[in-house]
Amino acid sequence: MRVGIIGCGAIARKRHGGEYTDNPKAEIVGYYDFTPGRAQEMVDVFGGKVFNSVEEMLADDSIDAVSVCVANKYHAQTTIAALKSGKHVLCEKPMATTLRDCEDMVRAAREAGKRLLIGHNQRLAPAHVKAKQILDSGEMGRVISFQSTFGHRGPESWSVDQSADTWFFKKDAAEFGSMADLGIHKLDLIRYLVGGSVKTVFSTLATLDKKFPDGTPIEVDDNSVEVLTFDNGALGTVTTSWTHYGEECNATILYCENGIMKLYQNPAYSLEISYSDGSKAHYEIGRMQTNEDAKQESSGVIDMFVDAVTKGKETPLDAEDILESMRVVFACAESSEKSAPVSL
After folding, report:
1. Which pLDDT tens digit goes with each residue over 277-328?
2. Into which CATH architecture does domain 122-298+318-343 fall?
3. Helices (H), the chain
4. What pLDDT was estimated at residue 294?
5. How confident is the model at residue 159 (pLDDT cuts 50, 70, 90)?
6. Sign of CA dihedral 173, 328, 237, 278
7. Whole-number CA gyration radius for the chain
8. Which of 137, 228, 240, 285 is most buried when burial is the number of CB atoms within 10 A of its CB?
9. The predicted structure's pLDDT at residue 107
10. What gap in Å lies between CA 97 and CA 223, rounded to an integer?
11. Residue 120 and residue 108: Cα distance in Å, rounded?
């Protein structure tokens, strides 16, 4: 599978470039970035060539698929153009900055007969995969309540800019802050693990600490709290933060009928289960990746995308299902604006 990478920021460098290179069924043809020097840096590390425009890359009939790694505001237009040109697409999260754009992306993939996957790597994290298997087996009974947190020191610490002037902090480019950057992972994960549909959300988005270099507050949220109610009765919270200035937190706890599951809370065990009868189980099955890792382990996203295209496999990252998580994201934003619960 011959691929192009559109956007050469941190996620392209740390994940896409290396994971395509490591996959024997994939070959990177080239790269495009608004800043040509970034594309050339990718060439220097991973091989391939620099394209002068997105249009030039999409016109190359030798390219089967593309990774869309541009700023959030450009996800929809770039993805739809790629699909219409006959390319399969792996788009980074969040899927897009409006619900209409997300729906249009899914429609474009269907009309083109091409695959569209969204890079929700947390669905593929080893402990999350194991937890899903256990929950689906019925061993834990239903999920009654939950809490999930994703917090780190902020994107300026690892983004390609390495600056508080990063596009992540600008509403025009990012639309949302920590809630969509980090919360989309956890909102999607909770949907995936709990099952059923989110019925209502009550959300607060806040800018508590982050500032631009001139000292003015950033234009998007740096913290958020979401309360979710599912149609199957499960109730819980998702919290996000760009102001965890110590250790990163990427933990989830599920309180079930037959016990408690703790995911990525204990550094020694990525999955811990305390059963209602007093017994316990511990699984050491892989740690959670972070953007600050010096050497990135495979997220599994690229391998899944390659298999989806070459083997026609359905995947947990298919855009049709991720679209339902985006409905929750936009409902959370609406709830915060209204300071009131929102029904889906």
Report:
1. 999 999 998 766 655 554 456 889 999 999 999 999 899 999 999 999 999 9
2. 2-Layer Sandwich (3.30)
3. 10-11, 17-22, 36-46, 54-58, 75-84, 99-112, 126-137, 171-174, 178-181, 183-194, 301-311, 319-338
4. 46
5. confident
6. negative
7. 20
8. 240
9. 98
10. 18
11. 20
Reported in sequence order, the residue ranges of the chain that DSSP labels E, i.e. its strands, are: 2-6, 27-32, 49-50, 65-68, 88-91, 116-118, 143-151, 198-206, 223-230, 235-241, 252-256, 259-266, 269-275, 280-283, 342-343
Q: How far apart are CA 263 and CA 265, in angstroms?
A: 5
Q: Structure tokens of 201?
A: 């959300």
Q: Which residue, 67, 64, 26, is CA-closest to 47?
A: 26
Q: Where are the domains of the chain?
A: 2-118, 122-298+318-343
Counted residue by residue, the chain has a size of 344
Q: Which residue has the tokens 């700023």?
A: 71
Euclidean distance between CA atoms 22 and 19, whole angstroms: 5
Partners of 320 in beta bridges: none
Grouping H, G, I as helix, E, B as strand and the rest as coil, residue 290 is coil
What's the CA gap between 138 and 130, in Å, rounded? Answer: 13
Question: What does residue 6 show for φ and ψ, rounded to 5 degrees?
Answer: -105, 115
With beta carbons less than 8 A apart as the criterion, state whether 137 and 226 touch.
Answer: no
174 confidence band (pLDDT: 50, 70, 90): confident
Q: What pTM did the predictor assign?
A: 0.91
| Residue-wise pLDDT tens digits, 69-127 | 999 999 999 999 999 999 999 999 999 999 999 999 999 999 999 999 999 999 999 99
- Cα(252)–Cα(188) distance, integer angstroms: 12
For the domain 2-118, what is the CATH code?
3.40.50.720
